[in-house]
Write the structure tokens for this entry.
Amino acid sequence: MGGMTQITHGPFLVAEDGSLTPQRQPAMRFEWRGRDCEATFDDGKVSLTVQAGAIPYTAERAEVRPGAFAALGEMAPDMPEGWRLRLLPDHRVRLEAAMPRQGNVTATALVRAMVAFALALDPYLDRLESAGLDAARGGGGGKVKT
């Protein structure tokens, strides 16, 4: 880098050692199993979220709603430490994970956290799908954005 200590890359300053410093609240967005996911970090933690699905509207599939709500209640206590299940006002289901940040965040470390989160999601997404929740109101269109 010839004497340059940091370069700007998108929302980050990148140091010679590869560590990233956010210039604004950066987010890396990706899709997993048809669902929108996002990774962010701040001074103390790395946060990962997914729009995991949506409770069907009564007009769509009224028979599925009781089982879907019951599945959420059963799943919440089974979530790993640092994970949270949220039911949003529009009945979309969001899963959130937060992990303590250890030192500088590099692109490699952030991608590693994103992959680990996506793989850990699978059994929870399977449970939601089995209960009748789908990604229709929770997912996007096959993209990776920074």
Observations:
- The first helix runs from residue 58 to 61.
- The chain has three helices and nine strands.
- Residues 138-146 have pLDDT under 50 and may be disordered.
- Helices lie at 58-61, 65-75, 107-130.
